[in-house]
Amino acid sequence: MPQGEANPPDPRGSGRRAEFEALHQQHSREVWALAYARWMDSDLALDITQEAFLRLWKHWEAGAEDIQNPRAWLLRVARNLAEDYAKSAFRRNGTQPPELLNGVRSSQPLPADEMERQEQFAQLRAVLDELAPADREILTLRYALDYDANTIAERLNIAVTAVHMRLSRARQRLAERLTTHGDFAPGEPTGETQA
Predict the structure, then answer these.
(1) How far apart are CA 172 and CA 107, in angstroms?
(2) How many CB atoms lie within 10 A of CB 185?
């Protein structure tokens, strides 16, 4: 997870630095996960996270006091940065970041179990990568960050009923893609069914 950001000069003494460090400690994982959900690239997500926190610091350094909810502000900036990346010339020209990671490795599984798990995880990631960014985002918020529907609604600024509908549709699209990729049988669980 993103940690160890360089200590910038404190525009208003040690109080502001302590507040910044506390915000980073509390929210860097969440900001990173939001960016990761959009691009499925841990390095890019880290870059977006660092840029969001840097922009918060610069905003404070400029003397701005208008951020009443820094967490929401950081999440909005990260979401906008992820979208800006999609619009950039780098993305339009077809240059892609390095290939996706093969998965998280557990401590001591049997080699055959680890290999099977990695194959399934790689397949799931490939299928997730085929989904629309909005589907990946809502699935990540629900299942990777374990947010409930109310929290997701707040983060995405949509109604709770819309969260349920988007989750249902995203799960359905995920299940359809998993079954067409072969190893997942139609009745096999692919995750929770309720938000």
Answers:
(1) 32
(2) 8
What is the C-alpha to C-alpha distance for residues 92 and 1, in angstroms, rounded to an integer? 28
Longest dimension (CA), the chain: 59
Enter the pTM of the model.
Answer: 0.46
Domains of the chain: residue spans and CATH: 14-92 (1.10.1740.10), 111-180 (1.10.10.10)
Residue with tokens 């692919």: 190
Q: What is the pLDDT of residues 119-162, one digit of tens each?
A: 888 888 888 888 999 999 999 899 888 899 999 999 999 999 99
- Average pLDDT for 50-71: 84
What is the average pLDDT score of the chain?
Answer: 78
Pairwise CA distance, residues 129 & 32, whole Å: 17
Helix/strand/coil for 104: coil
Cα(194)–Cα(168) distance, integer angstroms: 8
CA angle 145–146–151, rounded 5-degree value = 90
